[in-house]
Amino acid sequence: MHPYALIALDLANERSREADAHRLAALARSAAPERPSWARRGLAHGFALVSLGSAAVTRRLDECVADDLGRTLAPTD
Question: What is the pTM of this model?
Answer without folding.
Answer: 0.42
